[in-house]
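Hey L., structure's done. Input below.
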Amino acid sequence: MSVTIELQNIGDGPTRSEIAAVVEHVLYERSGLWRVTIMGSRADDKWEMRVEGPKGYERSYTLIGSAGEQQPHVVGNVLAKLLPANPT
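Output:
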């Protein structure tokens, strides 16, 4: 597993480090190169999460703060659902 995590405009240090740790944990057993980008908005409470992986795999999801989707464990759950069923 190789993962690049990019977090922009998502708030304080502890939240950033918790989200990075959760992303690494979710992708731990995945082979290939992975990139997860989470970009916060200064205009509203939405974060855009983009996942890129091997063989051109791409998915995106909008995490809405008022719906509780920006908690680290929820980010991890959403990421796990976005991934292909086969972990290799």
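The helical segments are 13-27, 72-82. The mean pLDDT is 94.

-- N.
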